[in-house]
Specification:
There is one protein chain. The chain is α+β, with helices and mostly antiparallel strands and 394 residues long. Helices cover 27% and strands 37% of the residues. It has ten helices and 26 strands. Strands 14, 15, 16, 17, 18, 19, 20 and 21 form an eight-stranded antiparallel beta sheet that branches. A six-stranded mixed beta sheet has the order 1-6-2-3-10-11. A six-stranded mixed beta sheet has the order 5-4-23-22-26-13. The longest helix has 18 residues, at 301-318. The chain is globular. The protein starts with a strand and ends with a strand.
Length: 394
């Protein structure tokens, strides 16, 4: 049996009713009992109140997902609502996994544990890709990838996203089957007779002259060109840079992330500034290599929209002629803030590329994990900011 998928969405104010509407729509469109269900919910809904309803409607399916600032469907972008994707196929295998209470754990070990859980019970099916959702308030989700790669290998496709709460930075949720968690990582492994196509871009360009990161430890940049790291913003923006110091991921960090030049990469590696420490060190959302070249980065709506087109076309090419049965979009919340009302144009363009009837679901997240092509076409997995990741399953 070929893969079937359906998407449901509801903005009903009551959590249980919203879940009932979305799950019923997804089940009806999928036409068969679901094997895997992906759930994205905005922070207006308590998962404890809606997840049991989804389990009841889509009984027997594995369920995975997280909270988000906004959900993406073929028809709209909902900054309030619950979206459900239901998938099924006799030729496809799915397993789910989760690790709880990860804040004070070794995140590399968390990734390794998550991968081993997903593999257990997978059997002899050919593994094709792993997708995970981590608490977006963790400082360095990139360490999780290293642990995943210890089990899956360095070239295995891994995609991921940090669950979000619309820049409140208070609490995000992760779902796995019947569990509702915070401070957790969940994921699903898929394989069998399916094809996947992955595309990713960000559309930001370097501003000004290159500078050098003289001192960095993990995800904290301490010195740039011999000065406190935060002076890179002070020198460009003067007093306006104080907004970066006063608010986590302030407007300055959203519009002007840091770009790390990586030799051989097709695009700069973007890093959002999570906060500025009292000594002027910049805390980034992801590891930063000491000694690397760094720029302040700049984008606009046109480049942002074009990057989505390029990512969708790359995912389509990677499907190698197979028709997509569903599309999953993991997109930085910063892009939605930059695009504003134009964000729906991005989704409409993606829909045109994959076909208007292709079931599509997506979320706005804090940090994206994706395999990106280098200039030599090797695939390297990075934690990226300000990007869009498109996964097409055929």
């Amino acid at each position: 049996m070929p893969t079937h998928a359906g998407v449901g969405f509801s903005q009903h104010i009551d959590p249980a009713n919203a879940a009932l509407e979305a799950a019923t729509q997804a089940k009806t469109q999928a036409r068969h009992e679901a094997d895997l269900v992906i759930v994205f919910s905005t922070i207006h809904y308590n998962p404890e109140q809606f997840l049991p309803t989804i389990q009841q409607v889509l009984y027997g399916a594995k369920i995975i997902g997280c909270s988000t600032a906004g959900v993406i469907t073929p028809q709209q972008i909902g900054m309030r609502g619950i979206a459900v994707l239901a998938m099924n196929s006799d030729d496809t295998k799915f397993t789910t996994a989760c690790v709880e209470n990860v804040l004070h754990q070794d995140l590399r070990q968390v990734g390794s544990t998550l991968a081993r859980q997903a593999i257990s019970g997978f059997g002899q099916y050919h593994r094709k890709a792993f997708v995970y959702f981590a608490d977006g308030l963790l400082n360095d989700n990139a360490a999780i990838v290293k642990g995943l790669q210890e089990v899956f290998g360095n070239v295995f496709p891994i995609m991921g996203a940090g669950s979000s709460d619309d820049f409140h930075f208070q609490q995000t949720y992760q779902f796995c089957d019947g569990k509702v968690m915070t401070n957790a990582v969940t994921g699903f492994l898929m394989g069998g007779k399916l094809n996947i196509g992955v595309g990713t871009r960000h559309g930001w360009r370097p501003l000004g002259k290159p500078r050098t990161i003289d001192k960095a430890v993990g995800n904290i940049i301490q010195k740039i060109d011999g000065k406190a790291a935060a002076t890179i913003y002070d020198e460009y923006f003067g007093k306006e840079a104080s907004t970066l110091r006063s608010t986590k991921l302030g407007q300055m960090a959203i519009l002007y992330p840091l770009g790390i030049f990586i030799d051989g990469e097709r695009e700069y590696l973007l890093r959002n500034a999570v906060s500025i420490q009292s000594d002027g060190s910049i805390v980034c959302q992801g590891e930063v290599p000491q000694g690397s070249e760094v720029h302040i980065m700049l984008s606009n709506k046109d480049r942002c929209l074009q990057s989505a087109v390029d990512a969708a076309l790359e995912a389509q090419r990677n499907l190698a002629g197979k028709r997509p049965q569903c599309v999953i979009i993991l997109e930085s919340l910063a892009r939605q803030k930059l695009l504003g009302r134009a964000a729906i144009k991005e989704i409409e363009t993606i829909k045109e590329i994959f076909g208007p009837s292709t079931p599509t679901i997506g979320m706005y997240c804090y940090g994206e994990i994706c395999p990106s092509k280098t200039l030599t076409e090797k695939s390297i997995i990075h934690l990226q900011n300000e990007s869009i990741v498109i996964l097409a399953i055929g």
